[in-house]
Amino acid sequence: MNIDDAIHNRRSIRKYKDKPLSKEQIVEVLDAGNRAPSAKNRVQWRFHVFQGETKAKLIQVCREGFEKLPKIPLMASAANSYNIMDQAPVVIVVLQTCEWGGISAEIQSVSAAIQNMLLKAHSMGLGTVWINDVLFVENAILDFLDIEKVESEFKEMFLDFDKKAGIEIGYSGPLIAAIALGYPDEDPKRDPRKTLEEVTFWHE
Ligand SMILES: Cc1cc2nc3c(=O)[nH]c(=O)nc-3n(C[C@H](O)[C@H](O)[C@H](O)COP(=O)(O)O)c2cc1C
């Protein structure tokens, strides 16, 4: 698939077939994310992949955390987003490292990685949706991830990368998003968009 096909035809997919993905497929998607540009080449993303039982537990954490919150209109889509994550065979939770304290450059790096994964998945015949509704339950998810434990297991790997770069180790910090991933079971129409004219200002 060429780049224009991927950009023009990718859609958010909110219905998935009950069909598992191979580890190789998931790794291909993650690898596309890991090839994104990043501020100072500091690779400010961490990917946590959930399937099966661990995914079910993640969704339970989201739903229970959400139940406890006072509700505002902005939250109207959250329950549906958790249902989508429940239905998709794979959920990738994307975190940002907090080396520089969560500044905009780091968020941009992580967003580039997410977009790479969405486009790569589409090119493989897979569907995705980028889910921010997990942010309502960020603390519950971060507790559930037990990041310190996970990262201590990878410490040598981080040390190696960071030592070569001559900098401090960047540990995982804020949650950025989740990505639902699986075989699409719908073919949604394109959402209406603002035109290029509406969003572009030419300075000539
Ligand atoms: C930052 C971001 C957050 C999003 N969060 C959610 C979400 O929580 N739940 C959801 O169903 N869709 C979510 N979406 C998907 C958007 O609704 C979708 O991209 C938009 O409607 C355009 O449709 P398209 O992706 O099919 O082009 C999000 C997209 C972005 C970029």
Instruction: Count all strands and give the number.
Output: 4
Uncertain stretches of 5 or more adjacent residues: none
Number of helices: 9
Distance between the termini: 36 Å
Report the sheet with the most strands, covering strand number, pairing sense and barrel closure.
4 strands, antiparallel
Bound molecules: flavin mononucleotide
Order of helices and strands: HHEHHEHEHHHEH
Tell me the β content.
15-25%
Query: Which CATH C-level class is it?
Result: Alpha Beta
Question: What would CATH call the homologous superfamily?
Answer: NADH Oxidase
Query: Structural class, please?
Result: alpha+beta
Instruction: Quote the CATH topology.
Output: NADH Oxidase
CATH architectural arrangement: 3-Layer(aba) Sandwich
Strand order of the largest sheet: 1-2-4-3
How confident is the prediction overall: mean pLDDT? 91
> Rough shape?
globular
- Using only C-alpha atoms, the radius of gyration works out to 18 Å
Tally of distinct domains = 1
Describe this structure in words.
- This protein has one domain: NADH Oxidase.
- The protein is 47% helix and 15% strand.
- The protein is built from 9 helices and 4 strands; from the N terminus they run H-H-E-H-H-E-H-E-H-H-H-E-H.
- Helix 2 (23-34) crosses helix 5 (104-123).
- The chain is globular.
- The structure holds flavin mononucleotide (FMN).
